[in-house]
Amino acid sequence: MRRTLLKTLVIGLAGAFCAAPAWSQSSPVELEFYYPVAVGGPITKIVDGMVDEFEKDHPDIKIKSIYAGSYQDSVAKALTAYKGGNAPQLAVLLSTDMFTLIDEGAIVPFDPLIKTDDDKQWLNGFYKAFMANSQTGGKTWGIPFQRSTIVMYYNKDLFKEAGLNPDAPPSTWDELVSQAKKLTKTDSAGQVTQWGLEIPSGGSFAYWLFQALTTPNDAILMNQDGNEVFLDKPAVIEALQFWHDLAYKDKVMPTGTIDWGTTPKDFLVGKTAIMWTTTGNLTNVRKNAKFDFGVAPMPKAKQGGSPTGGGNFYLFESATPEQREAAYKFVKWMTSPEKAAAWSIDTGYVAVSSAAWETDTMKKYVEEVPTATVARDQLEVSVAEFSTHDNQRITKLLNDNLQAVLTNSKTPEQAMKDAQREADRLLRGYK
Q1: Cα 232 to Cα 30, 180, 218, 283, distances in angstroms
Q2: Burial class for 240, CB neighbours closer than 10 Å (0-12, 13-18, 19+)
Q3: Is residue 265 domain-shared with residue 301, that is, in the same domain?
Q4: Which is nearest to 121 in space by CA: 289, 353, 319?
Q5: Is the residue at 88 inside a domain?
Q6: Residue 419: which domain range?
Q7: Which of 165, 259, 281, 330 is least surrounded by Cβ atoms within 10 Å, i.e. has the fewest?
Q8: Is 20 among the domain residues?
């Protein structure tokens, strides 16, 4: 009896050990990934498709995508979740959120994960203009993903109607004014039926479009450490005066503020012949324009140039070592040349590395859509998007003062002096 019991026990234990892999096998590393877009729509389908493909290639990693609304909504939700002890491990947020996320202690740099020669080659492959909003203090805090510059879209059909060369868009400020005047139409009652130009200034992106004027005028708005701004410099005030005059003196643009969201709509229905907006609108314009259109870099004052824009991948401090490694694999995969090329083609954002432009996929796309290279080529003269410590408050005060000028409430000089004084006060503690 004792021998039978002992035999049963041995067989049972052996069976348990043999079955061990079934219950001790490590489960997939799970990641929560915040992405800045409302639920639904083509972008979510693209992201979902890429995540599904990644999970098939990496069955040991499971990613839960959370579509958190606008960029502003996403950073607010991510920081709230972080403070509540429930942060995502990974998020795509604005490159300009970098200082805020660092100050909150919410993110960690990617540098400890960069170990091999292949890792280093990958990191060094991103365009330098995009890294300007991704690195500070000798560390890499963000990885460029959906990045952009501002470009000028113009309606070639309306150029022809106005007697302008459809293949010679304005390349200087003087040409912009003279051509926009010819493109502005009024009816018999003197009401404008077609504007020569629209530069968005409403909402939260006025400062960004302003940089498309200050950069060509050889003015930089902040230092690399994000603790000093240069808003009251003569070249900055001059750029703002030019923006104001386009509406009130030259009368080629609507007075007041122009909404960010309605500008592409106005362009697509022929309400404006030229618009300035993100290269991220390229796919939208390509799909919906019923006319021949062109894309051009920012017109020059003293030089060319535009700010960069868009979102970076950020790695949150609350991620475990295993989650950080998994998140890094995902980020590296998403920004690999082939994936970066596919993302650029599907969305209109600029492929973030030169290697992506060397892929067969991208070369074929450029043959079909040569306008896609405009934003890429402009990177050579592009600067970091405006970003500082206490970024939300300082950006708001800059936007408020820009909009005060565009609604004729302040002069450019007064507005920029007011903005400089208040920004100096807010940044004092970061020096």
Answers
A1: 48, 28, 14, 37
A2: buried
A3: yes
A4: 353
A5: yes
A6: 149-307+384-430
A7: 165
A8: no
Q: How many domains are contained in the chain?
A: 2
pLDDT in tens, 338-375: 999 999 999 889 999 999 999 999 999 999 999 999 99
User: Are 140 and 58 in a shared domain?
Assistant: yes
Q: Which two tokens stand for residue 200?
A: 């968005």
Q: Is the residue at 16 inside a domain?
A: no
Rounded to whole angstroms, the Cα distance separating 265 from 288 reads 10
Give the SS3 label for residue 293: strand
Which neighbouring-strand residues pair with 61? 29
> Would strands 185-186 and 293-296 be described as parallel, antiparallel, or unpaired?
unpaired
Q: Are residues 63 and 197 in the same domain?
A: no
- Looking at the structure, tell me whether residues 322 and 181 fall in a common domain: no
Provide the CB-side half-sphere exposure for 296 (13 A, CA): 19
Q: Same structural domain for residues 124 and 155?
A: no
Of residues 251, 244, 263, 285, the one with CA closest to residue 198: 263
Taking each continuous run of H as one helix and of E as one strand, the counts in the chain are 20, 12
**308 phi and psi angles, rounded to 5 deg:** -80, 170
In the numeric block, which tokens belong to residue 194? 């077609």
Boundary (domain end) residue, out of 359, 380, 401: 380
Tell whether the model's pLDDT for residue 58 goes beyond 70.
Answer: yes
- The enclosing domain of 217 has a CATH number of 3.40.190.10
3-state secondary structure 48-86: HHHHHHHHHHCCCEEEEEEECCCHHHHHHHHHHHHHCCC
Q: What are phi and psi of 195, to 5 degrees?
A: -90, 150
Q: Which residues pair with 229 in a beta bridge?
A: 222
Q: Per the confidence metrics, is the pTM higher than 0.85? A: yes
Are 43 and 97 within one domain? yes
Same domain, 301 and 313: no
Who's near 168: CB < 8 A, 6+ residues apart?
A: none
In tens, the pLDDT along 204-223 reads 899 999 999 999 999 999 99
